[in-house]
Amino acid sequence: MSKVLCSVATRGRYFTTLPLVLNAIINQTKPVDKLVIFDDNDEPQDMRKELIYSYFFQMLDAKKIEWEWRFAPRKGQHHIHQQANTAGYEWVWRVDDDAIPEPNVLETLYSYALTNVGAVGGSVLTPPYMPDTSEVSGKIDNIDSEPNIQWGAIEKVKQVEHLHCTFLYRAGVYDYNLGLSRVAHREETLFTYGLHRKNYQILVVPNAVTWHMKNPQGGIRSETKKEMYEHDEQIFRNFLQYRDKTIVVLNCGLGDHIVFSHVLPSIPSAEVFSCYPQVIPGRPIIEAINLFGDLDHWNIYKKMDQWKWKGDLESAYRNMYL
Amino acid sequence: MIIIAPYAQKLRTEKQNPKNYPYWETLVEMIDEPIVQVGVEGEKQLVPDFRKNLPISELRKLLHECKTWIGVDSFFQHLAWDEKVPGIVIWGPSDPLIWGHPENINLLKDRSCLVANQFIWWEATEHRNDRFVKPKEILEHLRK
Questions:
Q1: Do residues A150 and A158 touch, judged by C-beta distance below 8 A?
Q2: How many angstroms separate the CA atoms of B108 and B95, rounded?
Q3: Segment A15-56, tens digit of pLDDT
Q4: How many angstroms away from the CA of B100 is the closest CA of chain A?
Q5: Residues of B with Cβ-Cβ distance to A312 under 8 angstroms
Q6: Full 3-state SS string of A5-50
Q7: ipTM of the shown complex
Q8: In chain B, what residues touch A86 (CB-CB under 8 Å)?
Q9: A21: domain range?
């Protein structure tokens, strides 16, 4: 059975919703294999000294659930999620610090975690706002014209193109965009849509309700700077603008470009950004940075390292782009 | 005529690139054929005919004029592969199974000489002479 890491990113909610969330995670009908709490507080505290938290830690130990309290780099939750994404687990269940899952959520989500599935989400309800989402498509093209499908009761399994807030996902397949600002606006939409673009199914499923209390205090997105949201929104819109293309970014050496020239003809609708246009014609790398924020998605060396690659470079490029 | 492409890209730290072969001078003396060195300005000249900063198109043409070529793990081995002109690549810490091409003669002293992580920046790897085969072994392959 695949192992599931549960990651909770928290900020400013030590004594409000975080305890409710931890209690809900501990009491899942399918236990997680490991729980990591990423503490992104400006002034982190040692929670072992807090009675309620000591109870949680005792319960985790008694249930033989590995846990870790990790102090996060305070660069935004996308950096935290990427740490979880690359922690070596096959599945990661990401839970917000004000989103309280019912006891069966992980068991239900995990029951859909099949070979071709990239992410599974359930309803994420914020009463009193609970729109009827039965007719919502969940397609990225409709993101401006329909409510998020997870905001309402989900009555049947549906394949969508993006998820939000909390979901179970296949780890190590697609990267979080670390070029987003600290508010990480649209991070989960970009991430799950990226999994969809990798040809994995993104599912919403019934009988997996999380109560998203939207605690007005604290939160990992507690930054209010408008420019940060605008910056992230622009990156998101740029990804959408190029959704019919395969974005190719060759931020690498001359020899790598030569090897890649054998792969390029197989890539449909390539939009190329290149360091050596005399070998691979393309737009300058700086344009890719400005458009997409972070180029790690296309860093072939990082990917080969992540994949523990033993094959040749050409095959690695094929693995990345085809 | 034999082409030599002796050096991998200069590192930003000015440290010697760990992929550079340490015995070029000896090897060059042992080769009894005209040699053309290709590379860029600033690299050590090993033979009288050193053609610096040639455009890629010129390098491609030159490859078709040579009997064979000898290089290290640099862009030149990829260019020659692209031109379907096999040659000899002298390997040190980088893995020919990952970065090389089986069409070439890939001379690796021993797989124990490879660095464990092939995907880090080469600045992090120290240059070591003992990672490389001796010139005599290269000459044997050249004469085959």
A1: no
A2: 8
A3: 999 999 999 999 999 999 999 999 999 899 999 889 999 999
A4: 7
A5: 97-101
A6: EEEEEECCCCCCCHHHHHHHHHCCCCCCCEEEEEECCCCCCCHHHC
A7: 0.96
A8: none
A9: 4-226
Q: For chain A, how many structural domains are there in total? A: 2
pLDDT tens for A76-126 read 899 999 999 999 999 999 999 999 999 999 999 999 999 999 999 999 999
A44 phi, psi to nearest 5 deg: -65, 150
Q: In this complex, do A301 and B119 lie within 8 Å of one another by their Cβ atoms?
A: yes
Nearest CA in chain B to A303: B119
Domains of chain B: residue spans and CATH: 2-143 (3.40.50.2000)
Classify residue A152 by its DSSP letter.
Answer: S
Give the pTM.
Answer: 0.87
Task: Chain B: give the shortest CA distance to residue A39, in Å.
Answer: 29
Please indicate, yes or no, whether residues A113 and A63 belong to a single structural domain of this protein: yes
- Does residue A61 form part of some domain? yes
In the 3-class helix/strand/coil scheme, how is B63-109 assigned residue by residue? HCCCCEEEEECCHHHHHHHHCCCCCEEEECCCCHHHHCCCCCEEEEC
Q: Which of A143, A122, A155, A258 minimizes the C-alpha distance to A193?
A: A143
Judged by CB atoms closer than 8 Å, whether chains meet at A255 and B117 is answered as no
User: Looking at the domain assignment, is residue A274 inside a domain?
Assistant: yes
Identity of the amino acid at A316: A
Instruction: Nearest chain A residue to B82 by CA: give it.
Output: A258
Angle CA A222–A225–A230, to nearest 5: 115
In a domain, A238, yes or no: no
